[in-house]
Design a protein that fits this description.
The complex is a heterodimer of chains A (about 290) and B (about 300).
Chain A (H helix, E strand, L loop, with lengths): L7 H29 L21 H8 L1 H32 L7 H13 L4 H10 L6 H6 L5 H12 L3 H9 L4 H12 L1 H17 L2 H6 L8 H9 L4 H5 L1 H5 L3 H4 L2 H27 L1 H4 L6
Helix pairs in contact in A: 1-16, 2-16, 3-7, 3-10, 10-16, 12-16
Chain B lengths: L1 H11 L1 H24 L5 E2 L7 E2 L3 H7 L2 H21 L1 H12 L3 H12 L6 H11 L6 H8 L14 H26 L3 H9 L4 H26 L6 H7 L5 H4 L2 H11 L3 H30 L5
Antiparallel strand pairs in B: 1-2
Helix pairs in contact in B: 3-15, 4-9, 5-9, 6-9, 9-11, 11-15, 14-15
Classes of the chains: A mainly alpha (about 290), B mainly alpha (about 300).
């Protein structure tokens, strides 16, 4: 189209967008550069450097070799994986039931769901509930907490409504019950929304830190985000390096705390970066390819 | 007769109701139960025995507490700053993306700018602390380059709210632009061609064709944001706060957490929390219906 010619204004727009993108890309790459730099050269690194000075994985060896970090990493993975699986299963099965026509009681159920969606329970009460369930300092508190997100449930319902009735009716004629229809027809047809919603559940669970910090009090049950906050925000270098290492003035104590922090942040980012291509592929499909199909 | 056939229908669908049980259990335990327990706001907490009914005693106390007024003001100021200052940015961002001719460059900008939305506030705080570091952060490097003195923004009372606004914008400008970009890409191409034939330039197309198509998402986003004005960003504040600046960014959520779970004043904290939740519900409900009326799109 002639109106889309290259002009000065387009050049300025390109520069501006490049600048905004760089404010996001450079600090993230800088963390990688710092974490992978040679310990003796870390201090030479500037905030705008995106390439490591020298190369070493010693910061990762120290961080991942720290039993507290390893434990928290395991806990976070457990909560994210088991929690996301439960969330997906129960969100989908609930969405299936709530999309059945002629379901008696559907309207009051939907009203309750809307109330749940907009009324935030108190922090003190949530703590008390977990305490009364004897789930304090138990990883299952975070697995079970908010298993079903009402927004995602509604998205799932909209999707299941699109499945042609004829398909489900045919199965019913063949004598299939609701459980069979759900397992054999609805689940396989819902692959894409399951992936999309699964990504969002996983990201939320992986990134969660406030409730984990309240519900999980002991060191053994800490999750990575809570530990990371201790390093990054509170500057707790002793835990990161390991108290034993600090005492016997060994090489680990000489490492740059900033580089160790960077390595921990990288560890916390890696699962997100692994999920990110899937999120882009399924969630932002139309917008990424430059056309929305109506 | 009527109830009988109803019951028979429910009985015929019994598998469905059984399938609903796990959801009923999750919602009852983690939502409805704690919401009902918030009646503690009207009771004096007793470790042993029944709580004592005190009516609105804690509400009166709450509104007479100067710190609470400060915390409420902080919440509203930070929310309002974020809402009005950040609101235009994703729209501009989407408009700019749409002007890009090079598809690969556009895709790269999208991939990079959507990413921060998926990082936790702990990670973002880590990135921003480096960003704003007085000794070797990029921002202070640039300040020094132009001959300004280096400045520690994170411990500066007058700067910290702007840090919250800036980091929020940084996190969401790309992701929030998706809804606007989708609206732009959904515009029928023949509209542009017709305008071109009529002698319209690019600027006319933006103001006369694109912007009117963004009216619905703009109104929806703006109105629905008002519904969440009581949430100033708990995770963000918890990670950006420090002793020097806490008085400026202490919000209702951090206050409830501190008074309730750290100081153990359960009833008082619950009162503050109930006040927040109740206003939140009223705002979300009213903004939902206003938005529905104006744009036929609501919060759900």
């Amino acid at each position: 189209m002639a109106v889309r010619n290259f002009t000065v204004s387009k050049f300025v727009i390109g520069l501006l967008l490049a600048f905004i993108s760089l404010t996001m890309l450079v600090p993230i790459l800088n963390l990688f550069a710092k974490a992978f730099s040679d310990p003796s050269k870390v201090h030479l690194l500037h905030g705008y450097d995106i390439w490591p000075k020298g190369f070493s994985i010693v910061h990762f060896q120290v961080v991942l070799g720290n039993p507290i970090v390893g434990r928290s990493l395991f806990n976070s993975l457990f909560i994210t994986i088991v929690g996301t699986a439960l969330s997906l299963f129960f969100t989908t099965i609930t969405a299936y039931v709530l999309t059945r026509k002629h379901l008696i009681g559907k309207t009051p159920i939907m009203v309750v769901l809307i109330v749940i969606m907009i009324f935030e329970p108190g922090i003190v009460q949530e703590y008390m509930v977990v305490k009364d369930l004897h789930l304090l300092d138990n990883l299952w508190s975070m697995v079970l907490y908010r298993t079903i997100n009402v927004y995602y449930l509604i998205i799932m319902m909209r999707f299941i409504e699109e499945i042609p009735d004829a398909l489900l009716e045919a199965a019913k004629m063949d004598g299939a019950g609701h459980l069979t229809i759900f397992a054999r027809i609805v689940l396989p047809l819902s692959r894409i929304p399951l992936l999309t919603i699964g990504m969002f559940y996983a990201v939320v669970r992986w990134n969660e830190f406030f409730k984990s910090s309240i519900f999980l009090s002991s060191r053994d049950n800490t999750v990575l985000q809570v530990l990371l906050r201790q390093f990054v925000v509170e500057g707790d270098s002793a835990t990161l390096v390991g108290a034993a290492n600090l005492l016997v003035n060994n090489p680990i104590a000489q490492l740059d705390f900033g580089a160790l922090k960077a390595a921990t942040i990288v560890v916390a980012m890696v699962p997100i970066l692994m999920l990110y291509p899937v999120i882009l592929k399924y969630y932002t499909n139309g917008v990424m390819d430059g056309g929305i199909k109506e | 007769m009527q109830t009988n056939s109803r019951l028979r229908k429910i009985w015929a669908d019994k598998t469905l109701y059984v399938m609903l049980l796990p959801a009923a259990a999750f919602f009852s335990v983690f939502h409805i139960w704690p919401i009902l327990e918030m009646r503690l706001a009207f009771y004096e907490y007793r470790i042993l025995g029944d709580h004592v009914y005190v009516g609105f005693k804690y509400f009166k106390e709450l509104f007479g507490t100067p710190i609470f007024s400060q915390v409420l003001a902080n919440t509203l100021i930070i929310s309002a700053m974020k809402m009005f200052l950040i609101f235009p940015l994703p729209i501009l961002f989407a408009l700019m993306l749409n002007e890009l001719v090079n598809g690969k460059f556009r895709k790269a900008v999208q991939i990079i700018s959507y990413l921060p939305h998926f990082l936790s506030w702990v990670v973002i705080a880590g990135i921003w602390f480096e960003f704003l570091s007085k000794s070797n952060g990029i921002v202070n490097d640039v300040l020094r380059l132009f001959g300004f003195p280096a400045h520690d923004f994170l411990t500066d009372k007058t700067a910290i709210r702007w840090v919250l606004v800036a980091s929020e914008a940084w996190r969401n400008i790309g992701w929030d632009s998706i809804i606007f970009l989708a609206a732009i890409l959904g515009i029928n191409k023949s509209l542009y061609e017709a305008a071109y034939v009529d002698g319209a330039n690019r600027w006319h197309m933006i103001t006369r064709i694109i912007l009117p198509h963004l009216y619905v998402p703009m109104v929806t986003v703006l109105i629905l944001n008002v519904g969440f004005i009581m949430n100033a960003g708990l995770d963000q504040v918890l990670n950006f706060t420090n002793a020097s600046v806490n008085s400026k960014i202490d919000i209702i959520d951090t206050y409830v957490y501190r008074v309730g779970l750290i100081n153990g004043q359960y009833s008082f904290a619950t009162t503050a929390n109930l006040f927040k939740s109740a206003i939140g519900v009223a705002l979300v409900l009213s903004t939902h219906f206003i938005s529905k009326k104006l744009t036929s799109k609501g919060a759900w």
